[in-house]
Amino acid sequence: MNGTDTPLLVIDTSFGSTVGLPGREPCIETDSRSHVERLQVNIAKVMDQAGLSADDLRTIVVGLGPAPFTGLRAGIVTAKALAFATGARLLGQDILEPQARYAYSRFKQQVQDHTRLLVLAVNDARRRQLYYRLYDDFGGVESQARPLTEMSIDYPAAICEKIVANVEEQKSLDHNPVILVVSGHGTGRYADQWGHLAKHLDTQVMLDEGSFLEDRTRGTDLMAACACRRAQHGLIDPVEPLYLRRPDVSVPNPLKHVAVQP
Prior knowledge:
The protein is 35% helix and 22% strand. It is an alpha/beta fold. Strands 6, 7, 8, 9, 10 and 11 form a six-stranded mixed sheet that branches. A hairpin with a 4-residue loop joins β1 and β2. α1 runs parallel beside α2 and α4 (156-174) packs parallel to α5 (191-201).
């Protein structure tokens, strides 16, 4: 896998859970109510099917999100514990870059020459919000995708406002036509917002609902390749959850001092 040590295990709990070894059929749990309980069972299952033990692992790639915190934390803690126990190298990978690459590979054949294909990779953040990042310039398989925005979280209407400004800037730089693909979980839920986006930009907007990991072997291979490519370029991300949302907990007001009567 791009010069990295093997065997390599992929663990992601950004949406349900996915556990897999590159080139082999992964175990995928889409029910968010049970994926945490099934995670260790599924790790053992994919390792047994490959005829491997945990001590055979050399690299573990874990999804960092962005995603809601509870499920995401379960996958990261499991990956950290497994890496500690086995001595395997641990690599974190956000899910938006492989999502963008996946969408680009599927839609690039529909784009004419001299047309730029931008990908807005998203993931459902619940509370009517989306995690998102806009990508451009995917280059070859060994190059990094170029992000045009910071990774963030917002309401779809606010995301559209930011994307309009960014895409208009890109169009003014090279004057080539632009096509935008919105890809990831939550895309279909806000189709009306993307329709407004297309009108504001006077640009075709194509929708791609669902996670790249649902493409099973292709998805886990892509996740592993992105993480290994980043490691080869010296881009080692902290293995911490990308929650992005401000904590719900606030510091309580100080207690009132009550005078005590003698």
